[in-house]
Amino acid sequence: MLLPSIPGVDDRKSPILDPTIEENFSGIKYNIATYKKWGYKLVKHDYTTYDIMGKWGVQMTDTLTALGCGFMITVYNSRVINHLYHLIRETAGDMYIIAVIR
After folding, report:
1. pLDDT tens, 3-38?
2. φ/ψ bin of 59: left (φ > 0), alpha (ψ from -120 to 50), beta (otherwise)
3. What is the three-class DSSP state of 72?
4. With 80 as the cut, is the pLDDT of residue 40 above it?
5. Most buried pick, 5, 11, 38, 82, via CB within 10 A?
6. How many whole angstroms separate alpha carbon 92 and alpha carbon 71?
7. CA distance 52 to 87
8. DSSP state, 94?
């Protein structure tokens, strides 16, 4: 399931998955497990906060998210990101993960 349309991050060719919905977890785990199966030792996971919130860090002056941005399940943004990173870390096993939060 996708996040609601976020102004400025609503390209239909690059949809953004809602990281609070259980059914999306299997897709994330599948991708990381595939990289591991292919023999990759390192995965760089970039731009998470922009993907999830529709803003760069320097743009988060009065609000963290773009107007109209919201998850299916109401939780703190930090918990959403933490859960996503934990899911990736757990699935990656002994692979190195570089996660850049901007």
Report:
1. 555 555 556 666 666 777 778 788 889 999 999 999
2. alpha
3. coil
4. yes
5. 5
6. 25
7. 16
8. T
pLDDT for 42 equals 94
The answer, yes or no, to whether residue 94 has pLDDT greater than 90, is yes
CB 23 within 8 A of CB 56: no
61 half-sphere exposure, CB direction, 13 A CA radius = 2
Q: How far is CA 22 from each of CA 17, 48, 73, 87, 90, rounded to the nearest angstrom?
A: 11, 18, 10, 11, 16
pLDDT of residue 32: 93
Dump the DSSP string for 4-56. PP-TTS--TTS--B-TTSHHHHHHHHHHHHHHHHTT-SEEEEE-HHHHHHSS-
pTM of structure: 0.67
Report the alpha-carbon distance of residue 77 to residue 83 in Å, rounded.
10
